[in-house]
Every structure is written in C-alpha cells, then in structure tokens.
Task: inverse folding
C-alpha cells in the first residue's frame, strides 16, 4: 500500500513538473505572417507603383547591351562573362540562358506589378473614379511599354499577351498581334488618363518630372504610341500621336533631353545605372570603331562625346576598340525611356514617309543644330530621307536601344559590320524555353 | 514542492551516510582487470556490485581496483566501453582477483539509438546504424568535425565545398533525398538540435557573383557544425534514413547524426589529458598553367602581340605565388575528467590557430566545454553540459565573380608572361586590363567570419517506478544552441578593382544571431519477464528555430576605413527565419529471448513551415531482426560464424519545405527614396506540404569467431513523394519559379561494411576496415514540366530534372535541339534531345582503413575512393578563355573550343558544353604513424610524471589521385545545395595538412 502511494506521488510529481516545463516552453504561434515581406494584398498602392517603376529597370542592362551589341554599336567584354560576345555578337542566343531570359522575365515582372495595380484600380469605389482612371492609365501604359521592349527583341517570334504560370495557357501571338495589343493598351490608357482628375493619387519618381499628372503623363503615353506607330509603318497614326505628345520644336541640346527617364540613386534599396563604367578606366564597354569613323562631321559633332577616346586600343575576343562609352556620366545617370530627340526624328521619318520632305528637313536640322553640325540642305527623295533619319538616329540615340531595331525595320541588318568571321546578326530573339509548353 | 525537496535531501543524506555506516558484515575485494588477448592492464573499467547497484570502483592505470562490500557474498559486474561485460561471483574477502575482459570486436554490446529515449544493443538492432568512436574519428587531427567523417561509414559521404579556412562541407546520407529542401542531416549534440546552417556572409556583394540576397547565393559559407570541437566527441551514431530515424519525424529524411560528447569518469584521481599539435598546410595539387616560353607560334596566335626582337617571355607561376604559402597550424587541447560516486565531470579547452595556403587567410578556434553528471538520488540523474566557442576565419576572396575580385577568377585571365606581382614601390599593376590585381586582393581585401556560440543542454533521468519486472522512467532532454555570426568583408578604396567602379570602397557587414531550442520529454516503460522484454516509450517534442540576419552593404567609402557610416551608398538585407514545430511520438520495442527483436513507432509532427500549420503529419516505422546464431540449429556453425542476424525495417520521415516556401516575398525596388515593392522572381505556395520519404531496408550482420571478421550488408529502397520543386513557371506570369509539391523519386543503394582482424597477438595486430556504398536515384514522376536547375544556364552545363532521369543528371548545349549524336537526333530547336552529358552521382564510394600495431608503434591509413561522378569544370572554361589552361593550344584545347563553338569536325554545327569531367578520385584521407610509450618507459624516462605518452606524425588529405583537371573534384560553387553541387568556378584550392602531435596524460 505504501509502495503504491509512493508510485502515485512520483507520477503526479512528474506530470506536474512536465506541465511546468511546458508553461516555460510556451508554444509560439505557428501561424505567423511572412516575417520577411509584406504581401501583395497588404502592400500599399504607392509601393506597388514605385515597384512597377523600379522593376522596369530590372535587367535593363541586358537590354542595352543586347541591342547595342547586336546592332554593332558597341562591344562588351572584360574578364567576366564571355557570353555577351558569343551570344549577342556571335549570334548564338541560348533560349534557356540568361541573355534571352533575363530581359524577358524582368519585363513581365514589371507587367505583373502593373497588373496588381489594375486589380487595385478595379477595387476603387465609384466615388473615386478619377483616381481609378489615373491608376488604370498609368498601369496600362507601363504594361504596353514593357510588352514593346520584349517584342523589340523577339520580333517575328512574337510575345505573350496572356499571363499565366502555365506555359500552355496562352500561346505566343504574332508580331502584328503583339503590336495590336500594345496599341490597344496605350489607347485605353490614353482614354483613361484624359478622363482622370488633375493629379495622380500616387507619386512618381523624378524620372517622370514634368510627366507626373494624368494630363502630362498622357503626353508620354502618346510619345510611346508614336514609336509603335512608326514601328508598324502606320505613319499617319504616328503623326497624330506626336501631335498629342510632348514633342517640342527646339534646337538646343537641353531641349533634346526633355523626356521620361529611368532614374538611379545610391539611396537604400535603389538601383545604380547598370551600364555605367568610368570611361577613363573602362575595361568592358567599348564602341564599335565605325561609330567614330563613319561620322561625317567628326570635328564638330557633339554627339561623338558619347565615346571617350583611348590612345591605346583595348582588344579582346578578336575585336578591338579605342572608344570607351560615355553616354552616361555617372552611376546615377538616368537612362532614357523616350525623349524629345527621338520624337523629332520620329516626326521626320513620318513626314518623309508621308511626303512632307520640307517638314522632315526642318526636324532633322533641329537635331543637327543641337548637335553642333551644319544643317542638311535638302532631302532628295524618300531613300535619301530615310538614310538621313537613320544616320541621325544612330548618333542621337547611340546605345539607347535603337540602332538594331531601326536597321531591322528598314531591312538593313546586312549593312551592320561583321568584324569576326562566323558572327551572325541576330534578327529575332528565340522564344524563352520557360514559355514553351 | 517541499515534499520533493525533502525527498531529494533525504536521498542525498542516505548517499552521504552510506560509506561510513556499519550495520552489516563486510568484505574487501581487490584485484586487477586485464585484456584477455594481450594481458595488458585495463584502466577505467567499472567494477560494480550487482545486488546493491552501487557506483562501485574504477580501475587505475595499472588495472587495479579495491572495493569494500557490505555483504558476505556478491556478484561483481565489470564493464568497460569496447569490451564485453563480465559478471563474477565473489565470496569473502579476496585480495588478488584477476578479471579478464574480452574485447568486443564485433561491437555487439554497443548500444545503438533506436528511439528518442531508447536504445538497443547492436547485436539486436534492426537497422544498420553507423557509429564512429572517438578513436576512429580522430586518428589524424581535423580542422572541423565533419571533415573527419569522410570514408568511415558506408552511406555517409562528406564533400568539401571550398578549401577556404574554416570549412564549408556538405554531409550527405544515402544520396539525394530532396531537390530543394534541406539535404543536410539533423544533428544532435547531447540531445540538443544544433544548427548546421550555412549562413551567407555577403561575399557575393564583393565578387558580384550574383546579387546580394539571391536565392542561389555563391558565397560558399562555413557550415556551423564546424564550431564543434572534434576532440570533445565521445561517439557519433548515424541514423542514415527514415527506417531508423522515423521517430525524429518531419526533419529526419536526410538522416540524423547523434553526437555524444565526452563524459566524466569515475576514478581515484582526475585524469588530465594534454594534446599538442604542430603542423602545416600546403596546396594539395596544382592544376598547372600554360607556359608560353619557347612557344612562339602559340604565343602569337593566342595574343597577337607585336613580335619582339628575340622571343623571350618570363614564366610566372601564379598558382605558386597565390596558393603556395605554407600555413602553420598549432592546436592545443587540454581536458580533465574525474568524479566520485555522485558527480562526474568533464572539462576541456581547445585552441587551434592556423594559416591557410593563401597569405592573410587562416582560421582560429577557441572552445571550452563543461559536462557534469550528478546522481541526485538513487533514482534521479541529472546531466548538464555547456560549451562556448569563439572562432574566426579569414577566407579570402575566391569563387565565381563578375568583377574579377576573386583570386582564381582573376588569375584565369593573367597569362604567365604578364607580371602582376607587387612592384618594388608597393604598387600593383593591371597591365592585362582585367580590372583587378589578385596580389592586391590578397593584401588588401578582408573576408572575415567570426562566431560566438554557446550551446547548453540538460537531461533528467528519473526512475519513477522500479517494481518487480516493471520500470518506468521519465527522460527529459533539452537545450539551446545560440550563436552570433559576424561577417566582415572589406575592400578598400585605393585598389584597382575599386577604382574601376563608380563607388570605390566596399564594406559589407552581416550580423546573424541564431537560436535553436528544443525539449524532449519521454516516459519509458520497460517490462521484463522470462526472456521477454517490452520497452514502451512515448513523448512530446518542441522545437523552435529563430535567426535574423542583417546585412549592410556600403559602397563609396569615404576613407581607408571599413566603417559603414560614411559611405555614399548603403544597401541592406534582412532575412528572418522562424520555424516552430511540435511533435508527438510513440515507440514499442520487443525483445523475445534475445532471438527476435521487434520495433514499431509512430511520429506526428506539425510545423509553421507547412501550409496548414495545425495539421499533424504522421510518420510510422517498424522493424524486426532475428539472431539466427542464437538458435539451436546454429550450434555446429558457431565456432566459425559466431553471430548472424537478419534484419528488416521500414519507415517514413519528412523534409520540411524551406521556411520561405509558403510565402511570397516581394522584392524591394525603391526609386528615389520612395519604397517600392515588386513581384518577385520566385513565388510561394500557401498549400505547401512536407516531402515524405518512405524507406525499406534489408540487411544481415555476420560476425566470425574471435572477432576475425564482421560483415554488415544493407540494401535500401526509397520512395520520395511530394517532392518540393522550385518549378519553372511561364515568366509571362510575372514570376519564373514557384514552390510546388510536384514529383516522386526513387532511390536505392547498397552499403557494405567489413571489419577484419586477421592478426591479433600480444605484440602485433592488424585491423582492416572496408566500406562500400553505391546508390542510384531516378525521378519517377514530375507533375511540372521538366526543367533545368543549378549552374549558369544550359550552355555552361546545368542539372536537369525530368522524369525517368537521375536528379543529378547534367545537360549542356548539345542536349537541346537537333544533334546527330543524341538519342533523338531530330529534336526541335530548344527541345530536349535525350542527351545526358554527365551525372554527379558516383558509381560507388569506398573507404579503406588499415591499422597495424607493433608493440608501441601504430601505423594507420585511410583511403577513400570515389568512382565516377561528374563535375562541371568552369574554371577550365575561364582559363581556356584567358590563355592560362595548362594545355592551351593543344589538340585537346582546340577540340574543346571547337565543340563550344559548334565547329567540331566530329559533330559540326552542334554547339557543345565541353567542361563536364569525370570527378573520380582516390584520396589518402588520413595517415598516422605513432608511438605510445609503455608505462614502464614513461616511469623510467620521466619518473612517473606522465600516466601515458604518445607521439605521432599524422597527415590529412595527403595524396589525391584523379584525372580531374581542377584543384579538387570535391567542390561546390553553390555550397551545400541538394541539386547543382558539382560546379567548379575558381574555388579556394584544397590543402593537405601534416601534423606532429604529442599527447600525454597527467
């Protein structure tokens, strides 16, 4: 009997001890929210807007290197990855590799952010219709611009205009259907922006200075629309869009720079200009030599300051160059999305294509005057006009992602210099492997 | 509560009074305990009186003991670890008893862990459980504990990720069991789950190998098991898979390693052991660099340099200059063990200091540990252990890089005739315009990691009921493992590589406090009757893990200072990891007359890492063994085959999804000081579940007479379901990866261990141990499209995850699109054509150890052989580009280049990935030549000052035989990830280490 009591006591004591231990070791809540992030639902509209703006810069370096190298404006080498030279310049793009996928992925990531904003816009009550329209106009413009950048690369291979994790859910659409979708989005955005209030409900960065209200943002929207119109050869629509854009008839260098930019800073969580390299110490990013050699006004053309002459050539991967790239002055220098210089040249192109040679000449000479070179006397015919437009675009928009696309849309890729035997000029980026079912 | 205190004090009083109380007759028994085979006296054997469960006496260095017994006759139980116990009846005083113990060569008596609080003798165990004793662990000193595991247990493979000082090793049990989950086993030290995490220190911010905070970092950090002082370890048990480890539940799929540290020892006097080592590190192997002297044609074709008047270029051996330092190693270990009938203690201190093979790199570790075991009453024992470690490593800048701030990467682009050495005036040049100078990096860049770590554990063992055949125990163990890791990476402003950036000067600081805590409480009931024994255990477990890493990346430093306050740009990254788990377990072990042993268990787990945090996941196990040699029909065989056992067991265990898998973590994308959040590349899955590994294991253990040979054979089969995948999703959705439970994998393997004692005499003995492991794996089901992972895109070699293929298969450019050499030669552009160009999984691994002892001399060596297993050697890709590969310009080089460019005459028009190499190797892991002085010699030479004295010459990783062209086929640019390990990108080369050791006891 005594024994049983002892056993019972010990058992109760041990259970008690155990319970005490449990209290000290209280179970923490297992159902905690993500300790490392806000969720898509809890993030503020402002943070998503800034996120959309910020993510448009993701992998932009790949876009600039890709278009500049394929367009033979520049070479990119140095100790690092040889694939810039083998894939972009060599022409062997790996559909599963970063040189195809990085830009593609980043553009659709920015689109996903803008799509979150469209969802937020749809949740706005009718009493905030103005703000809702502003958000919609912003988001659709961003989506359209990002689609355009991808379509610029894939070209005849097309893009996706439906968004699903399942690669089989939406097929690739043709280049024409891609442009149709981009134009639809731009036009819907324009309609929304013009029906919106006087101000956005959110802030945009200094890259949108002068374009940060619905009315002024709409001019940026029309500028993009003018570009897509030119790319599709719809020059009448191009002229219409330009008339509603921020095109300014100026002949100053500063006036050429008016426009919308990606901005960079050293602030926390911000990005730095991905393609800047101090020109005097540059080891990687060099202009293709013809950029300098083929300039017709080497003594005066201010646009040649976009390269920095180095007395000893830098050779690598079978090419060499004396010209480091100095398009961007610092690691916080902005990168243009679209600016007045391009708009003037777009109008010149559209005017040539619609027979207004005099108007076109005036636009070309505005650009030339700003660059410090003598005006053209006349445009002989359409071919001469297009030659002149392409020449000015080459120098005015150097390394801003245009040369390859311009040469392609005028079927002149065969005029690009091939310095290494076996290299090929890429025409279309392949469809990324991740998108194939 | 007062009653408990009274009970405790009463117990203590009884114990205190016992030796002096004289209320019955007594006798004195003394004698000597000897080894049966060698007649050497055995120190440290415990002699107990069976009837009164007294603590008894312990033999001294001469094997002598003395006992006062309060009875007229008694049974003495004599026990010593590694020997078979003996029971001897004594009647009346006896002053000259000689007790001989037989060495337990088959380790039949070794108690193996089968449950959370229960164990079973090896001879009964239904599983093949690997064990490593202290003497097997460290015949040669090791920098870190896990380094000393290599080649010792079948199924356990150790692979070094980097040769950088401080370690960085991945531990793998039975091959691949997960694709993205944790592939490293769960590690307990004295009942505390310790962190073996690899915490990124931010090296990627320096080398620009990838972005800071990338999901696939390349910083090659240390794994935190490295902090455990290997000299404190008493033994290690390795539960290789779910069939043995199922009661550890949802974290046990990768196996469980149970480490027990040294405990106190009962003895007349405290035993002090001192161990002093001196040694040095040397580059294990050079890969060689191209010598351009006397190769005019090659030189001009490669570099198109203007022809000099006379062709004379210097040959500068950059490997020698960068990695050729002889690093001094110095290690001191001191320990004291002692105790009396109620309290035992072990205390140790250790200091290790070493320099690496690269100047300004090195590792030091100071460690101390205190372990106390106290017998509170006859029924209650409490154990406590605490350790503190302070370590620091300077790991240098190596590995992948996108700015050439990595020694090997930069050196790959410096041909041997261009002089990069520091100039006489102390400056550095960059005449090949690679953007950096490796000698300047060595001299000026700091990559330092510091650890302060406290681990404390406690155990309560309480015999609640001991009545007749019943015994009920409460066993509670728990503890806490806390450390702070501080990484400091500094690259000063006035360096070539910093001047080339827009914001010269970088300082990266990472502080990571990490806390693991766990508590197990079990009730164990044992019933024994007439050869039948039932052990029932049940309990609960709580485990919490918290870590909070804060990285600050400062660029544009204001001065020659690593202070981050005055930088032009600051970037930060915080990574919080929390996981809270609770488990319940139950286990029943049945022993039938020593003939059959049956076990069954069940574990239930819930965790914050699962999508459903309240759902309990069930993990059952069961096993049986039959000791054939105990049956009557074996009588005729017993003289040759002493023991034979058949065993089978099956079990399930899990792998939790990574803590981030269920959440979508938005990316930060600030613009102009406004906070921005954007959709991330990888999204979470709110329905994620743990992976489930089902394993069945069959085997036999056969022991031959007199310990001549012991053979352990095991075959296992695994099915892994609900494989968590970072499955590729269409990027047009906005993200590229999502976690999913989306696959199944089957693996199987054979493990053989053979222990031979062919010669065993008083003067000479030979022990040989061989182990063999072979495993295979195949993805059997994939609910997501096949995808590539690991590496740097398919053109440079990547791993492919697709149905019907091994998960470690490697593919390259030639595996996609049309290729006449592929199984499907007409595959469409970009489509997989069935060509696998390599597999990381080796054909087999073997360990081969031999120990010869002659009088006091011992010669021991351990070889490890890995056959097969491919490595993607991107170092060679880089040196090919830089004109520095040893065979640059040779036909082999030309072929590689042609294949890369799709110009090979063997396969024209098809671009190939030519850097996948066979990673087979044979390594001399350990070598020891030692002399142990006999007691007579030490007494004669040193007048009894030492109780023992041993001197040895040892070495670790002394020889490497391989056809692999890199430094070491054991390499992993991405650290201890499950898939995508064997990628070689200019790593920190491996070292060999020699030691001279003096060890003595006081």
Result:
């Amino acid at each position: 009997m005594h024994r049983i009591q002892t056993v019972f006591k010990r058992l109760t004591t041990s259970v008690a001890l155990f319970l005490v231990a449990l209290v000290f070791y209280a179970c923490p809540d297992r159902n905690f929210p993500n300790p490392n992030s806000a969720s898509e639902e809890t993030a503020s509209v402002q943070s998503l807007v800034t996120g959309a703006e910020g993510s448009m810069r993701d992998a932009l370096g790949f876009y600039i290197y890709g278009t500049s190298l394929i367009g033979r404006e520049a070479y990119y080498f140095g100790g690092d990855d040889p694939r810039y030279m083998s894939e972009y310049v060599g022409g062997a793009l790996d559909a599963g590799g970063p040189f195809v996928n990085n830009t593609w992925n980043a553009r659709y990531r920015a689109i996903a952010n803008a799509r979150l904003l469209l969802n937020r816009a749809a949740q706005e009550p009718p009493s905030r219709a103005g703000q809702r329209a502003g958000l919609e106009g912003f988001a659709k413009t961003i989506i359209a611009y990002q689609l355009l950048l991808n379509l610029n690369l894939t070209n005849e291979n097309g893009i996706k205009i439906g968004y699903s994790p399942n690669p089989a859910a939406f097929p690739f659409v043709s280049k024409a259907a891609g442009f149709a979708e981009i134009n639809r989005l731009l036009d819907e955005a324009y309609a929304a922006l013009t029906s919106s209030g006087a101000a956005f409900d959110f802030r945009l960065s200094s890259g949108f200075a002068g374009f940060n209200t619905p009315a002024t943002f709409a001019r940026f929207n029309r500028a993009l629309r003018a570009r897509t119109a030119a790319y599709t050869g719809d020059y009448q629509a191009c002229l219409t869009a330009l008339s509603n854009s921020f095109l300014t008839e100026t002949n100053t260098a500063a006036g050429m720079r008016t426009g919308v930019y990606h901005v960079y800073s050293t602030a926390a969580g911000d990005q730095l200009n991905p393609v800047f390299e101090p020109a005097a110490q540059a080891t990687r990013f060099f202009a293709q030599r013809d950029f300098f050699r083929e300039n017709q006004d080497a003594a005066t053309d201010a646009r040649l300051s976009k390269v920095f002459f180095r007395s000893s050539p830098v050779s690598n991967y079978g090419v060499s160059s004396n010209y480091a790239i100095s398009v961007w002055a610092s690691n916080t220098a902005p990168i243009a999305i679209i600016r007045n210089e391009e708009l003037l040249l777009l109008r010149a192109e559209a005017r040539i294509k619609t027979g207004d040679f005099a108007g076109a000449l005036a636009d070309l000479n505005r650009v030339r005057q700003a660059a410090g070179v003598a005006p053209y006397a006349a445009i002989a015919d359409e071919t001469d006009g297009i030659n002149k437009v392409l020449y000015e675009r080459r120098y005015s928009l150097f390394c801003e992602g245009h040369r390859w696309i311009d040469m392609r849309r005028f079927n002149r890729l065969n005029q690009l210099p091939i310095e290494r035997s076996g290299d090929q000029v890429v025409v279309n980026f392949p469809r990324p492997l991740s998108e194939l079912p | 509560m007062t009653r408990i205190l009274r009970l405790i004090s009463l117990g203590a009083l009884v114990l205190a009074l016992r030796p002096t109380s004289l209320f019955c007759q007594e006798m004195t028994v003394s004698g000597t305990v000897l080894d049966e085979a060698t007649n050497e006296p055995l120190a440290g054997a415990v002699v107990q009186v069976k009837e009164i469960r007294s603590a008894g006496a312990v033999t001294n260095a001469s094997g002598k003991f003395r006992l006062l017994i309060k009875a007229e006759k008694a049974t003495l139980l004599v026990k010593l670890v590694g020997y078979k116990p003996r029971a001897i009846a004594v009647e009346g005083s006896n002053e000259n008893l000689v007790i001989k113990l037989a060495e337990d060569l088959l380790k039949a008596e070794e108690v193996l862990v089968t449950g959370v609080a229960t164990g079973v003798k090896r001879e009964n165990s239904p599983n093949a459980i690997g064990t490593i004793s202290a003497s097997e662990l460290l015949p040669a000193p090791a920098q870190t504990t896990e380094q000393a595991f290599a080649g010792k247990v079948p199924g356990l493979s150790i692979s070094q990720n980097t040769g950088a000082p401080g370690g960085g090793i991945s531990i793998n049990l039975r091959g691949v069991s997960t694709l993205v989950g944790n592939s490293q086993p769960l590690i307990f030290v004295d009942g505390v789950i310790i962190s073996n995490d690899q915490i990124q220190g931010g090296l990627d911010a320096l080398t620009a190998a990838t972005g800071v905070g990338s999901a696939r970092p390349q910083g090659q950090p240390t794994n935190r098991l490295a902090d455990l002082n290997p000299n404190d370890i008493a033994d290690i048990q390795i539960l290789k898979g779910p069939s043995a480890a199922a009661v550890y539940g949802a974290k046990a799929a990768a196996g469980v390693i149970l480490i027990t540290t040294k405990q106190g020892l009962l003895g007349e006097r405290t035993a002090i052991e001192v161990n002093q080592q001196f040694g040095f590190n040397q580059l294990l192997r050079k890969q060689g660099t191209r010598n351009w002297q006397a190769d005019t044609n090659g030189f001009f074709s490669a570099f198109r340099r203007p022809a000099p008047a006379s062709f004379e270029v210097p040959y500068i051996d950059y490997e020698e200059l960068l990695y050729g330092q002889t690093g001094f190693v110095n290690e001191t270990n001191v320990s004291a063990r002692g105790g009396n009938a109620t309290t035992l203690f072990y205390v140790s201190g250790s200091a290790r200091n070493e320099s690496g093979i690269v100047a300004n790199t090195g590792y030091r570790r100071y460690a101390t540990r205190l372990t106390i075991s106290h017998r509170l009453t006859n029924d209650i024992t409490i154990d406590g252990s605490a350790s503190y470690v302070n370590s620091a490593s300077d790991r240098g800048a190596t590995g992948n890089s996108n700015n050439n701030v990595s020694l090997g990467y930069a050196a790959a682009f410096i041909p041997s005739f261009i002089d990069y050495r520091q100039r006489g005036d102390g400056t550095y040049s960059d005449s090949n315009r690679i953007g950096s100078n490796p000698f300047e990096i060595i001299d000026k860049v700091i990559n330092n990691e510091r650890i302060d770590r406290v681990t404390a554990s406690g155990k309560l063992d309480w015999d609640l009921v001991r009545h007749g055949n019943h015994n009920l125990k409460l066993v509670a163990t728990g503890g806490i493992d806390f450390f702070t890791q501080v990484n400091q990476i500094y690259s000063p402003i006035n360096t070539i590589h910093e001047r080339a950036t827009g914001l010269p000067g970088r300082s990266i600081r990472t502080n990571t406090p990490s806390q693991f805590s766990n508590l197990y409480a079990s009730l164990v009931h044992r019933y024994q009757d007439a050869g039948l024994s039932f052990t029932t255990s049940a309990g609960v477990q709580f485990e919490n893990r918290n870590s909070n890493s804060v990285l600050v990346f400062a660029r544009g430093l204001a001065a020659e200072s690593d202070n981050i306050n005055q930088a032009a740009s600051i970037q930060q990254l915080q990574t919080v990891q929390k996981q809270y788990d609770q488990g319940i377990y139950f286990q029943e072990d049945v022993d039938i007359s020593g003939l059959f042993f049956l076990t069954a268990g069940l574990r239930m787990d819930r965790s914050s890492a699962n999508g459903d945090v309240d759902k309990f996941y069930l993990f059952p196990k069961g096993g049986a063994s039959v000791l054939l040699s105990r049956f009557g029909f074996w009588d005729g065989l017993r003289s040759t085959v002493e023991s034979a056992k058949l065993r089978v067991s099956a079990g399930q265990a899990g792998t939790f999804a990574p803590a981030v898998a269920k959440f979508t973590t938005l990316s930060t994308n600030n613009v102009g000081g406004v906070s921005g959040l954007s959709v991330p590349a990888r999204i979470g899955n709110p329905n994620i579940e743990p992976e489930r590994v089902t394993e069945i294991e069959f085997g036999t253990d056969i022991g031959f007479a007199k310990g001549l040979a012991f053979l352990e054979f095991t075959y296992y089969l695994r099915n892994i379901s609900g494989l968590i995948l970072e499955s590729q999703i269409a990027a047009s959705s906005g993200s590229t990866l999502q976690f999913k439970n989306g696959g199944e994998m089957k693996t199987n393997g054979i493990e053989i261990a053979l222990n031979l004692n062919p010669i065993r005499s008083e003067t000479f003995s030979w022990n040989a141990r061989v182990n063999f492991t072979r495993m295979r794996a195949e993805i059997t089901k994939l609910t997501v499209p096949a995808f590539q992972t690991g590496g740097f895109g398919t053109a440079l070699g990547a791993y492919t995850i697709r149905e019907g293929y091994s998960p470690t298969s490697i593919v390259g450019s030639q595996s996609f699109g049309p290729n006449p050499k592929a199984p499907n030669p007409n595959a469409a552009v970009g489509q997989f054509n069935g060509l696998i160009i390599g597999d990381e999984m080796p054909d087999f691994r073997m360990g081969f150890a031999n120990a010869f002892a002659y009088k006091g001399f011992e010669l021991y060596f351990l070889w490890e052989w890995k056959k097969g297993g491919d490595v993607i050697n991107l170092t060679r890709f880089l040196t090919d580009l830089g004109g520095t590969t040893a065979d640059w310009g040779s036909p082999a080089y030309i072929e590689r280049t042609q294949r890369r460019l799709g110009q090979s005459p063997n396969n024209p028009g098809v671009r190939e990935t030519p850097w996948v190499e066979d990673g087979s190797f044979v390594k001399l892991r350990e070598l020891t030549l030692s002399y142990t002085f006999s007691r007579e010699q030490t007494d004669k030479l040193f007048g009894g000052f030492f109780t023992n004295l041993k001197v040895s010459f040892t070495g670790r990783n002394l020889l490497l035989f391989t056809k692999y062209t890199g430094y070491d086929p054991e390499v992993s640019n991405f650290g201890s990830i499950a898939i995508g390990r064997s990628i070689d990108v200019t790593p920190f080369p491996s070292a060999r280490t020699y030691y001279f050791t003096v060890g003595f006891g006081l």
